[in-house]
TrEMBL record, chain A:
Keywords: Signal, Transport. It comes from Bullifex porci. This is Extracellular solute-binding protein. Belongs to the bacterial solute-binding protein 1 family. InterPro entries: SBP. Pfam families: SBP_bac_1. Residues 1-19 form the signal peptide. GO terms for molecular function: maltose binding. GO terms for biological process: maltodextrin transmembrane transport; maltose transport.
TrEMBL record, chain B:
Keywords: Cell membrane, Membrane, Transmembrane, Transmembrane helix, Transport. Its main location: membrane. Residues 77-292 form the ABC transmembrane type-1 domain. This is Sugar ABC transporter permease. GO terms for cellular component: plasma membrane. One of its GO terms (biological process) is transmembrane transport. The keyword DNA repair does not apply. InterPro entries: MetI-like, MetI-like_sf. The chain crosses the membrane at residues 12-35, 81-102, 114-134, 166-190, 211-233, 271-292. It comes from Bullifex porci.
Length: 424, 302
């Protein structure tokens, strides 16, 4: 008897590992939409998103929002793993560079299949074009930004430079950098003159693409093929190598490292998406007193063009009832009422719709003012499914010419081989 | 006699029945996933296949051909082996030294043993974050200490930013985390070395070194073999320290097979290619552990 009991117990223990529960589906008119959003976990953004949930649910009592959260670096996998298990979210708060991956995974729905036509017409066509794959847009931008140049007016003044005349070309920047790099902060720490992210994360690759555009170069041609045999591409990486050699650029830094250094007065100028200022002011609330922005620098024969980035919503088609709720949610968020205070005080960025054009908080934002014209000077980059891979290969190239001290020729040759395999 | 046979048969059936749950678990959670992963490594199998439920398609070894055509695989294999050898050598030497100290009945040994275990209980990701901050290039403690020790001659010290030193940086974090367990296992082994044999050798005039290599080490052989095997496996599959501290950079200097597999599967969203890396990784691990077991065959000393 004892033996049989032991046997049954061990079988039950084993079987319990295979057991699963099934949630009972409550049929009601209430629709709960699942919104995957990493920003809900980030200190600087929590009040805004809590306000969105509260305001949306008050306006639409039949709709509820359920956040699906994961840290920034894990949210894509979280969404995909859930979808693999049959649990698809309805909306993903996404970087624009993630959109091709979601489309390739079969998760993103064309926005015109979910959103009303009038709302789509309100989005600037040139901005919507950045989300198009085979003629269909797969992302809805909340707001946009090129990579702008943030600089520290106090450090400029300390170096004997005019705080109201930031550099406009890479040559000018190098002259400024010579003076700025002589400075020390109040604790005697080195002040870096210029920051360009090169760490092994996809967003750094996006920043590097923008730098290539500054020099009039390209990374992909209009058909999505690798296109790096151009002068602008080479000059961008030669400049990175020079910046490293002079000790002007913090090596292998992530954007968050640059924000940290800038907030602490240890970095005089750096490239960032406009909303990166939120990270700076989270570290040092006084940063608004010394921060100013400028248009991206012109290099070589380039005109200082940059790459447009956006925070956007990727929509998932989960049936008519959910699509209606998603339509209401997207229109609620991407509206002057919801975004004006956010763009003015939390996340400096430029609106993506006609109806928000000239919004008070953006037009008169002292942080954005210097770079205001740069929104019109952007270059469209075709989207390919392997965009994240390509971005990571660009960071490897940047590291090769900086920390690895490889020649630009050798590094570009290695990059071409690796990137071509990824784009196959 | 017949009664005894019937009892034996009953015991055997009962033992077999007790093994069934373990067998089922191994089958469903280990064997089937491994076979499934190997099959997928020969297929064009991407995230969209999971989401749409469509099966993968045989792709004529394309995943393997692509991997061998890139420099990434060779680089990852070299990094993996260098890391494993570095960590195991230092872990064993330092772990043994600590175990000998703790076994020598010094004052406060019990307290030190408890304190020493702290890194082992800290989650790996937290350990990685701690070491990342220690190595931080602008205001990290290690940079400050290096500057202090060199009397201000070395002011720029960024271990994780240099391709030559990044792997060592991750290795140091791994050693900090893993030495306590190695020490504990070796200490358990040391305490099982019979005192009478040691005393006999001492009376015969054997030196401390001779006693260590001729008595202590042979008696500890089985413990050492298990501890080192565990360490080989642990470091062969090390992912969180690398991903958190360097993400595989700079310039691929810390891309090991775990990072490469993750990047192929979850950054490129190409699960077939990720499975191909995993298959190569698994084969290399089996070969390594097999060679190790063959080289370090142990004999029962008792």
């Amino acid at each position: 008897m004892k033996k049989i009991l032991v046997l049954l117990l061990s079988l039950l223990t084993a079987m319990s590992l295979f057991a699963g529960g099934s949630a009972e589906k409550a049929e009601s008119e209430q629709v709960t939409i699942k919104v995957a959003n990493y920003a809900v976990l980030e200190q600087g953004y929590i009040p805004f998103w809590e306000g969105v949930k509260e305001g949306f649910e008050a306006k639409y009592p039949n709709y509820k929002i359920e956040w699906v959260t994961a840290p920034y670096g894990e949210i894509v996998n979280q969404v995909i793993n859930m979808a693999g298990g049959g649990d698809r979210v309805d909306v993903i708060f996404s970087e624009s560079s993630w959109v091709p991956g979601f489309e390739d995974a079969g998760l993103a729905a064309p926005v015109d299949e979910v959103l009303s036509a009038d709302f789509i017409k309100d989005i600037y066509p040139s901005v919507l074009a950045d989300f198009e794959i085979n003629g269909k847009a797969y992302g809805v931008p909340l707001y946009v930004t090129p990579f702008v140049l943030y600089y520290n007016k106090d450090l400029f003044a300390q170096a004997g430079l005019d705080p109201n005349t930031p550099p406009t070309t890479y040559d000018e920047m190098l002259k400024y950098a010579e003076k700025l790099s002589q400075l020390k902060d109040k604790n005697g720490n080195k002040v870096y003159a210029f920051g360009q992210t090169t760490a092994s994360v996809a967003i750094s690759g996006t920043a590097l693409t923008a730098m290539v555009f500054n020099f009039g170069g390209e990374v992909l041609d209009a058909n999505g093929n690798l296109s790096c045999d151009n002068e602008g591409f080479r000059q961008a990486f030669e400049t990175l190598a020079l910046l490293d050699e002079m000790g002007y650029n913090p090596q292998n830094a992530k954007l968050k490292d640059l924000r940290n250094l800038f907030a602490l007065g240890q970095l005089a100028m750096y490239y960032d998406q406009s909303w990166g200022f939120n990270g700076v002011s989270s570290i040092n609330p006084d940063a608004k007193n010394f921060t100013a922005s400028a248009a991206p620098l012109k290099g070589g024969n380039g005109s200082g063009e940059s790459l447009m980035s956006a925070h956007c919503f990727v929509l998932v088609d989960n049936g008519e009832a959910h699509n209606k709720a998603v339509d209401a949610f997207v229109q609620y968020v991407i509206s002057a009422d919801t975004l004006s205070d956010y763009l003015a005080n939390v996340t400096p960025a430029y609106p993506a719709t006609y109806s928000m054009e000239g919004m008070e908080g953006v037009a008169n934002n002292p942080i954005l003012k210097g770079a205001a014209n740069s929104v019109a000077n952007v270059k469209h980059q075709v989207t390919v499914p392997a965009l994240n891979d390509l971005n990571l290969e660009l960071t490897t190239l940047a590291q090769a010419v900086t920390v690895s001290n490889k020649s630009v020729d050798q590094a570009i040759a290695e990059f071409k081989k690796a990137a071509a395999l990824k784009l196959q | 006699m017949r009664k005894l046979n019937s009892k034996n048969r009953g015991d055997r059936i009962y033992s077999f029945c007790l093994l069934i749950p373990a067998f089922l678990l191994a089958l469903f959670f280990i064997l089937i996933p491994i076979v499934d992963s190997v099959i997928k490594s020969f297929q064009d199998f991407k995230v969209k296949n999971i989401i749409s439920g469509k099966p993968g398609v045989w792709n004529n070894f394309a995943n393997y051909i692509k991997l061998f055509a890139s420099n990434a695989l060779g680089n990852a294999v070299v990094n993996t082996f260098v890391f494993v050898v570095f960590v195991i050598v230092f872990q064993f030497v330092l772990g043994m030294a600590l175990a000998l100290v703790l076994n020598s009945n010094i004052k406060g040994a019990r307290f030190f043993r408890s304190i020493m275990m702290t890194p082992w209980v800290v989650p790996t990701v937290i350990s990685a974050l701690i070491w990342m901050w220690l190595f931080q290039p602008q205001y990290g403690l290690v940079k400050y200490l290096v500057s202090l020790v060199t009397f201000g001659k070395v002011t720029e010290f960024a271990m994780l930013n240099q391709p030559d030193s990044a792997l060592t940086g991750v290795g140091i974090a791994a050693l900090w985390k893993q030495i306590p367990l190695m020490t504990l296992l070796l200490l358990a082994g040391l305490q099982n070395v019979p005192d009478d044999i040691q005393e006999a050798a001492m009376i015969d005039g054997a030196s401390k070194t001779r006693r260590f290599f001729s008595i202590t080490m042979p008696y500890m052989a089985s413990v050492i073999k298990i501890a080192v095997s565990m360490s080989i496996i642990e470091n062969f599959k090390q992912f969180p320290l690398f991903w958190t501290m360097t993400g595989g950079g700079p310039d691929g200097a810390t891309t090991n097979l775990a990072i490469l597999s993750y990047r192929e599967a979850f950054v490129s969203m190409n699960l077939g290619s990720g499975a191909a890396v995993t298959t190569i990784w698994m084969l290399l691990m089996i070969i390594t552990v097999g060679i190790y077991n063959k080289c370090f065959r142990t004999y029962d000393m008792t």
